[in-house]
Every structure is written in structure tokens, then in C-alpha cells.
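Support request, please re-run this one:
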Amino acid sequence: MTKEVNGSKTSLSEGGGGVKLEKSLGLFNGVAIIVGVIVGSGIFISPKGVLQEAGSVGFSMIIWALCGMICLVGAMCYAELGTCILKSGADYAYIKEGFGGLPSFLYLWVALIIIFPTGNAITALTFSNYILQPFFPDCEMPEVALSLLAALCITLLTVINCVSVKWATKVQDIFTISKVISLLIIIVTGLVFLFMGSTESFQEPFQGSTTEPSKFAMAFYSGLFSYAGWNYLNFVTEELKDPYKNLPRAIWISLPLVTTIYILANIAYLVILSPAELIASDAVAVTFSNRTLGVMAWIMPIFVAMSTFGSLNGCIFTSSRLFFVGARYGHLPRFLATINPKLMTPVPALIFGCIMSLIMLCSSDIFALINYAAFVETLFIGVSVAALLMLRYTRPDMERPIKVHIIFPIFFLLIIIFLIITPLTSSPMECLMGIFMMCTGIPVYVIGVMWTKKPQVFENYHKKLSLLIQKCFYVVAEDIEEIKMD
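Re-run finished. Output below.
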């Protein structure tokens, strides 16, 4: 049986037992999600981290290129995982297949309480900052105004994602194109000045290059932070048309495109600004536009705001699918694994993610939380790639439409190990706090998942809540699996 939803047909089970998320994402949508999430505020606001830690212009360019190459290798490993495990949820689904319930729940826990909510909150605050900046040119912006506009932004995008997948993908497509255009303006302007002879920053490109392993690692962290989001298309694999072809194609188009744009943008910045001026600027794109665009300099803050708006939309879209899949496996309340039968979107998961992000806007220490979580997020990316190697060993006959050479996951894991060990020696407190936050999920797993014989009062309350939610949403019954205790 089929049903007309938002202008397209979606298959429903004959017995009415459940509804699946619609396969509505094409290749262009996939590229837009990857590029749109990766290119957020970082490349516009603060690319100084790589240059500051690398010590020289030439070495910083090499690190930008290496970061792109490392992310491409990681993305190809994820392409194998995403096509042999055709389930949304990305890292969560892969870790569960490779290592079982507890490790996958700990990833879900960290993503739930820190990674996505704080990332969304900071992106929304960056959007607010650039929108309100023209209204407070000579004074500090009120924190209440920033928070309220950020909350409005998160809520508006959540509503769009609830109403229609097509609306959400159109927003993503439009704002991805706008941010690429803004970067092209920077690149073309910089190249024009370069050909006019502005080459002072490139006279001695490797002078002052760092030789300290800790600084080398921190330069990589700054670069990889700007590439964050390269694995987000894997969160929505179930909604991707022909994933065996479109997932790897989207990766091969997106990562080289972003790497090229990032390198050219950094060259353009350094054509106009000296290395010292770039390091001193906290909003390098705005400083660049003030130097080069004259009366049109006002367009750059608008483009930065548009970039963060699109990036936030991509994060809301993908993170809701993680909560949806986590609930489907019994690691979160079951009502989160429901879909609105008219809109064909996981409305409860989207609303849940919105609430968590709004809560983070009330915190004054979300930047510290992001620093703590960065170490753990890198750790879990390594665990996901380790799951690829584990599945190669434990399930050698598993169907793998894409199978990367064994050297790629090994190389990627070595890089991850280096990036994990080095901060433990240079910033042990932040790393230990990240590990502590991860470990707080263990008692939650024991009580919420492993403890099956809970008091009847609790069971009755949970059942009534689930029935109330299910009056508006259908449970994806055919996809819900029973948890096997390890």
C-alpha cells in the first residue's frame, strides 16, 4: 500500500504495523548535507588555530591538506560501514554491531547530553551574534537577546524539520549554496590581489614551523575541528536513495571540494592579512571583508550567519535520527522511535533534541563542555573504525558492497591513537573530564536498559506516556529489535 506524503509516495505495511522513514535524499542532498554541516562558522571566524600551532604559513597549508586527506580516509571507512550496515545512527549503529550494547550506549549518552546539544547551542549563538552585530556597533550585545534569538533559531529549524523532510533538505541545499558562494567571493578576491603582487605572507613559507609533537597535534585538532561533520550523512543512511552508490559518491565529491575550498580560502586570507594579523583576528572573514570589499563589507556577517543557519539545520536533521535509532533499540524511551504518519518525520526525536539544545543555552559553561567532549568524540570515531576491523574478523562473510583496503582503517586508527595520546600529556584535565562524563552513562545503562524488572509504578507511568504519544505517532514496529544483554 502507498501513501501520498508531501508530494511523494511512501510505502506503508499492509497490516498497518509500522511506517518507515521515506527514502527522499538524492546525491545532491547528500553532498549538501556533508558540505553544509562541515562548512559552518569555523572557516569564517577563526582559522588562526592551525596557523598559530603550526608556526608557519607553508606548514599550516600542509596540515589543512592532510586533515582533508585523513577525513577522506575516515569517510571511506564509514562508506564501507554505512553500506554493509544499512541503518541510520552512524557511529551508534556501527559500535553496536561491532562491540555490543554498552559501548554503543556510551556513545549515545555523550552525544545526547553534550556533543549535539552544545554544538547546536554554540552554532545558534554564533548565528545570533552576527545577526545582532549591526544593531550594537559600539556596545556589547545583551546576553538575553543573544540567547532568545538563538532559541528562536533552534525552534524554527526544528519546526521545519518536523513539518517536512523536503523542506529541511531545501533549507540545507539553499544555505549550502550560499556559504559556498561566500567562500568563492573570498577566494576570488584573494586571488585577484595575489596576481596583483600581494605575496608578502608567502616569501618564507616554512620559517618558524613547529617541531613540537604537542603543537603538531593541536594544529591537527584545530584543522579537524573545521572538517567536523564529514560522517554526518551516515546518520541518515536509511533515507538515502540508492545508498550503495550515493553514499560513496557524496563522500568523494564533498571532501575534496571542502579541502580545496579551505586551502584556497586560507591562501586568500593570507594574501590580504599578514600571519600576525590573521592570528590576532577572532573573525578573520569580517576583517578580510573590511579590508577588501569597501562599502559591501556588510555582506560577510550576513553570509556567516547564513552559514551557521545551514550548519545548524544539518545538525538538527542528522542528530534527530540518532535519537530515533537509539530509541528503536531500546536505549532511549520507545516513544522517541515513532514517526508522524502524515508528515513522515520523527517528530518526538526532533522535539527532544530541540529541548536538549535549549537547555544548553541556559548554561554559561557550554564551551568547556565542548572541549571535554572533543576528546571523547575523537575516541568514539576511532571505536567506530575499530568496529570495521572487528566485523572483518568476526563476520568475514558479511555482504560488503564497498570494501576498502585494510591499510585505510589501520592508518586512520593510528592517527586517532596519536590524537588521543598527545592531549593526555598536554591537557590531561580536559581529557579526564571527558572520560568522566562518558562513564556517567554506565549507571544509566544499568538502571535504564539492563534492569528489566522495574517497579510496577514506573512501568505503568512509562506505558501511559507511550500510549499518549502513540495516539499521534506510529511506532516503527517492524524495525524495533529486542536488546540482547552482553
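The chain has a mean pLDDT of 79. The beta strands are 2-5, 8-11, 338-339, 474-475.
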